[in-house]
Amino acid sequence: MNSEILKLSSQEQAEMLNISPDFVRISMAAAIELGLKPGRIHGCGCGCINLLQNYPEGCFANCSYCGLARERPGLAEENSFIRVDWPLFPTDLIAEKIAETEAKSTVGRICIAQVQDHRANDDLLDMTRRIRKQAQEVPISALAMATLLDKNILIEIQKAGADIIGIGMDAATEEIFYNTRGK
């Protein structure tokens, strides 16, 4: 058995098996608002529920500005997207909680963010369908990786139930792109 795995806590080992599309990371604020985590946030509402794909290898992109960058020190599970915890939950549970919250009040929108991984497109489609099935009225944004896209996948994302497709255009030239995002 790999010595790196033996150094992980039992929770960390379990999280390595809990990958997208069946599991998804959710921003801590949204987890609190949906009742998935204890806590209160003054003046917070469900304007946007941010979800992030989860893979044990982390993200294969190497964006200089991102906490999930491939060459960031430490294990992928230890890295944080934007300096806060992103707890991991079953995708279907999150979809149910979104639907319950929408029935009681308003959920502004859901944003499902991709990471750079060979499974990301298929998993984005699956996750979008699961959430759309439960929360039929909530707008869904798919934040897609430009390096993973072509016209066909954009059409498939829309058919899966996304209302908005955001594509990160992180640079104005190819040179700046590779300097910022890595190869």
TrEMBL record:
Domain Radical SAM core as annotated: residue spans: 57-176
InterPro entries: Aldolase_TIM, rSAM, rSAM_sf
A Pfam family matched in the record: Radical_SAM
UniProt entry keywords in alphabetical sequence: Iron, Iron-sulfur, Metal-binding, S-adenosyl-L-methionine
CDD domains: Radical_SAM
SUPFAM superfamilies associated with the record: Radical SAM enzymes (SSF102114)
Entry GO MF terms: catalytic activity; iron-sulfur cluster binding; metal ion binding
Stated name of the protein: Radical SAM core domain-containing protein
Organism per entry: marine metagenome
